[in-house]
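Supplementary Text 2. Reproducibility record for the structural model of the 121-residue chain.

All settings were left at their defaults, and a single model was retained for analysis rather than an ensemble. We include the record here because the model underlies the residue-level annotations in Supplementary Table 4.
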Amino acid sequence: NVACIMLGFHGAERASKSSEFGAVPENFMMGNVGCLGNESSIKDCPHNDGWACRASDGAGVVCLDTIGYSTSLKEGKAAHRGHVFIGNFPVCSDGWDLQDATVACRMLGYAGAEESFEHDL
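Retained model, structure tokens:
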């Protein structure tokens, strides 16, 4: 939760380990982080400085959006494709375009959108 709140989100949906979003540089600032959840900064959490880890050991997080709902892709044929959901509610495609899809993809941790679909995912 602490990392997401620092970034302006409502909190965390889940933590990720093992560089789930891709390899990271091996110059780690901290390791063995043990937040209680009430800290205002991740740097205030108990941790070890300059921890020796591998590129496959990056910590990550999936944050809830600013109103407290997670954003996800559902019902697609691959993990990076699908209908956009905010919480358990789908987003309507009326007015939906590539710019909207790009924002949704960035919320999900992707660099952007390649194309936008209204159906047949």
